[in-house]
Specification:
Strand order of the largest sheet: 4-10-9-8-7-5-6
Largest sheet: 7 strands, mixed
Shape: globular
InterPro entries: Aminotrans_3, Aminotrans_3_PPA_site, PyrdxlP-dep_Trfase, PyrdxlP-dep_Trfase_major, PyrdxlP-dep_Trfase_small
Strand content: 15-25%
Distance between the termini: 43 Å
Pfam families: Aminotran_3
Bound molecules: pyridoxal-5'-phosphate
GO molecular function: transaminase activity
Family: Belongs to the class-III pyridoxal-phosphate-dependent aminotransferase family.
CATH architecture of the largest domain: 3-Layer(aba) Sandwich
Number of helices: 16
Keywords: Aminotransferase, Pyridoxal phosphate, Transferase
Helix content: 40-55%
CATH superfamily of the largest domain: Type I PLP-dependent aspartate aminotransferase-like (Major domain)
Number of strands: 15
Radius of gyration: 22 Å
Mean pLDDT: 97
Amino acid sequence: MLKNDQLAEWDRENFFHPSTHLAQFARGDLGNRIISGGDGLYIEDRDGTRLMDAFAGLYCVNIGYGRQEVAEAIAKQAKELAYYHSYVGHGTEASITLAKMIIDRAPANMSKVYFGLSGSDANETNIKLVWYYNNVLDRPKKKKIISRWRGYHGSGLMTGSLTGLELFHNKFDLPLSQVVHTDAPYYFRRADTGQSEADFVKQCADSLEALIAREGADSIAAFIGEPVLGTGGIVPPPAGYWKAIQAVLKKHDILLIADEVVTGFGRLGSMFGSDHYDIEPDIITIAKGLTSAYAPLSGSIVSNKVWKVLEEGTDKLGPIGHGWTYSAHPIGAAAGVANLKLIDDLKLVDNARDTGTYFNQGLKAALDDISIVGDVRGEGILAAIEFVKDRDTREFFDPALKVGPQVAAALLERSKVIGRAMPQGDILGFAPPLCMTRAEADMIIEAARDAIQSVA
Ligand code: PLP
């Protein structure tokens, strides 16, 4: 086996890490952590240190680490048939079975799944499908996409544009001109502290109406949003938000894309976030929880309404000229089939609801008396703690203090628990695997309290 020092040297010399401050990495400020194993909520590095991963990788390892059922399904598929493409009607038992399993679980109005590799490419697909859809319908001007500030939809050119976070725009000359942003449903950060949730929801819907009026409804193709804002701060929507937004979109014949890369397959305690909030999307983006990240795979689930236009459109415009070499990759599909079976067998959606509620209530109760804790929020097995300088005014800390990253570092150092300092604002996020037990939830809560107190 290679020595750790050797690997660390090769790492610095050869590996361009994503989302990384390259100079800090080169100086050794970020260290090297070489992960070598995992089981349940835990990962282990090459020094033998065990860490509790309360963020499930990048909120993706939903069944937990080390599930042999999925590993064996992957190995079996690789031995039988590692690859064949899915162009012009080709498929494999795994990809066809997985498509059926997804449609069986998806909201009732959903029709077909287009497979990709990542959440980003699935969202790129969605935008192209929406454009194709409007071309079929002879609406060549109806092409702009509305996204929300603080939304996260990927790191591609279009998806980076849809993302409403400065870090993903700055220095990349994004967003592209076809994207317009509207307000985030971020009630905690409302301008007027006296405003009721209902009034805030109305304000979000009115602001969307105003944007549509400014741009012209005939220029807007779709609205994309995560049922719960994820990377932008883990922000569940205020009650009634989706109903109000959907009414506006329907009025202007604007398609709704529900980006369920994080919320799909159980994280909110329902199979889909769309079920959870009574959303009726035209397209749903899935990735992460589809395979629990045991292999890369994503999908765009299209509704009956969209499918009908696409299918008829091909007679008019010709075949859909959009495909990835690895669309519906058999190994990813085999992982997906085994993963979805395991989610059913272990009743992980129920556990996400029950243990997630226990976790969220426990966090709230345990952190309530700490002065820098401004907000504790969450849904299912998804939670966030937002830090503030002043509880009454919700004043931000100076970003240079990096309070969120400091708490995440303290959590890791003091308790060997991984949480995520979210990229914008002083927010610590938790998204443990859906198999978390109550005892593990208690450990995370205790570790969070200890870390926050050490920084406060
Ligand atoms: N959409 C959402 C809601 C996400 O959270 C992410 C990733 O975190 C993506 C899209 C992009 O997925 P990927 O990183 O697989 O490209």
